[in-house]
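= Protein in question =
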Amino acid sequence: MSLPVAPPVVEPPSEWGRLDPRMIVVKPLNELIGLLPLLFALVFLGNVETWRVVAGVGTVALIILYGLFAWLTTKYRITDTQVELHTGVVFRQRKAIPRDRIRTVDLTAKLGHRLFGLSAVRVGTGQQERQAGEGVALDAVTTAEAERLREVFLLRQKPVEQDGEQEVERDTETVITRLDRRWYRYAPLSLSGLVGIAVTVGFAMNLVNELDVEFSEVAALRGIASWITGQPLAAVLLTAAAAVLVLSTAASLLTYSLQNHGFRLTRHADDTLRVRRGLLTTRSVSIEEQRLRGVALHEPLLLRAGAARGSTR
């Protein structure tokens, strides 16, 4: 039985081009989503003062301008031999990766990307990109363009001889594993929940101190303080420990769900492995199987009850 002919991989033009103009909106939007708690506290906590409103509006304006200049100063091109990226608002950066060294393609779509149908494409050589400053990130291109670039970089479609003609295999996938709901029981065994609570409390206390917010002005806090002063120390400590345990568990489960929702590990007909996961921010990472050097298993103390974290090398 003959295989259906798939469309050929179309190489992108080798001229310099710009990213999708919607990046002007998407980049500031992604930044502002992360700053929403800080901006809310700056403007609304304590007395509503003019300088706080001006500072909040000024911060938003600067982030929007940064997105505009980032788009204007970013250009890229893909030639037969390498991927080049020139970017930088204050400090110019020029990066290039030989195409024959590309080992991974990472498609990431944050909430702002998803609202506008865009994705960020990062290509890497399998080295420690975050530490060595390697890797080229195209933020942002359309989702369809991101998938096409993945095909180009990893040569997903390979010609095969059949009946004297060259045909291309249909892209099929084999599911190696997918998210098992039983994995959620291991989420609270990590320290991510406790760390998240500690960071949040520390940030909140520092923010309250900077904004000169008086606890006596908040009725709920006055009620808690009154209850604490009227209870034995043991009861207060037990209640605090129970509250930390509940909040830590909830935070760990929420974090695990946001990061690993829809997790799937698949093998494709073009000899690549692909990992997809994420709820608000979706991520799809492809790696050529023949360039996979190994797998590392990490077993923190609390996870040794039957679980581990894995990573490729």
Q: What stands out?
A: Confidence is low (pLDDT under 50) at residues 156-168. The helical segments are 23-44, 50-72, 111-115, 129-132, 143-154, 192-210, 219-229, 233-260.
